[in-house]
Specification:
Blueprint (H helix, E strand, L loop, with lengths): L19 E6 L1 E2 L8 E2 L1 H8 L6 E7 L4 H13 L4 E10 L1 H6 L4 E4 L4 E4 L10 H26 L3 H9 L2 E4 H7 L4 E2 L18 H15 L12 H12 L1
Parallel strand pairs: 1-4, 2-3, 4-5, 5-6, 5-7, 6-9
Antiparallel strand pairs: 7-8
């Protein structure tokens, strides 16, 4: 029985009962040989279980660009808002899927990478020319997704892909690949009941105050002892 390790649908809190959360972790492929790849078939089966708004967490190095295009199309056609959250990496084909988000958010420590498509080809000159032509067309199709999301010119996007561009959250937002950087939600956090601060001077003064309050000087006895009595005691000690 196939295990869907990469995709999970869970119910959010009672205020958002109709929103599903899905996790895209791993390589994107047409077929999954070891149940550890994300395929369009698996994605479609899980996505069809929910018709409302969804949140998709992405942490993927990429993979098959055709499979990624199918997943991208499924998200574009989904009836509901699609919030994409990149918590690790969205590289190569995974960056194309991210572009399907109605809103794309990136963790401050996440990365997004775009580059030119690649393939393996063999044969004569004619076969090599066909492979080059195919890669050029695939690149144009990928640029379509980037252009729709970012609004950047196709020439600019093409150069970014040629250079294999890596972007942190701020750069991705600046260029339009992401809409915002994720921040910690502090609305429902209560302020700490105790304020903590370290100061060497304050610590020393505190210790001195405690010693002052607890230490008592030795009491001086009022009983007088004669010198002869002291000498007798010292003499006994010597023996």
């Amino acid at each position: 029985m196939k295990k869907f390790w990469n995709w999970k649908i869970i119910q959010n809190n009672k205020n958002e009962p109709n929103e599903a959360v899905l996790y895209l972790n791993g390589t994107i492929a047409e077929e999954s040989w070891f149940d550890d790849d994300v395929t369009p078939k698996i994605f479609k089966e899980e996505l069809e279980n929910h018709q409302g708004d969804i949140t998709v967490w992405i942490n993927s190095p990429g993979g098959d660009c055709i499979a990624a295009a199918q997943i991208y199309n499924l998200l574009i056609e989904h009836k509901g808002n699609v919030t994409v959250k990149i918590d690790g990496i969205a590289a190569s084909a995974a960056s194309v899927i991210a572009m399907a988000g109605t809103t794309v958010k990136m963790s401050p420590v996440a990365m997004l990478m775009i580059h030119n498509p690649m393939t393996i080809a063999y044969g004569n000159t004619s076969e090599m020319e066909k492979a080059i032509e195919m890669l050029q067309e695939v690149k144009e199709s990928i640029i379509n997704a980037y252009e729709l999301k970012t609004g950047l010119s196709r020439n600019k996007l093409s150069k970014l892909m040629d250079n294999e561009t890596w972007m942190d959250a701020r750069k991705a937002v600046e260029l339009g690949f992401a809409d915002e950087m994720m921040e910690r939600n502090t609305k429902n956090l209560e302020p700490p009941s105790v304020s903590m601060m370290y100061s060497e001077t304050l610590l020393t003064n505190s210790l001195m105050d405690k010693l002052k309050n607890t230490w008592q000087p030795p009491q001086i006895t009022k009983n007088k002892v004669s010198a002869d009595s002291l000498m007798e005691r010292l003499f006994l000690l010597e023996k």
